[in-house]
Design brief:
- By secondary structure, the protein is mainly α.
- The chain is built from 3 helices and no strands.
- The termini are far apart.
Amino acid sequence: MNAATSILPLALDITTAVMALSFLLCAWRLLRGPQSIDRVLAIDTMYLNAVALVVLLGIRWQTALLFEAALIVAMLGFASTVAMARYLSRGDVIE
C-alpha cells in the first residue's frame, strides 16, 4: 500500500467533518438570519454542502450512483435559488 492510498481515508474523514460543520453553521444562519437574503444565501450554501457530502460519500463507498444523485440535488438547488431570488426581487416567480 502506497502513501496516496493510505492517506485517502483520512482526507475523506477530515473533509466530511469540515463539510458537516459548514452545513451546521449554515443551518444556524438559516434559523438566525436577520433578513430573508441571509436565509436564501444559507439555503444556497446548504445545498452546495449537501452536494459535496454526497460526492464524498460516493468516493468513500466507490459507487457512481451517488454522483448522479449529487447532480440532481445541484440542479434542484440551482432552480430553487433562482426561483427564490426572483420571488424576493419581484414578488412573483412566473410572469
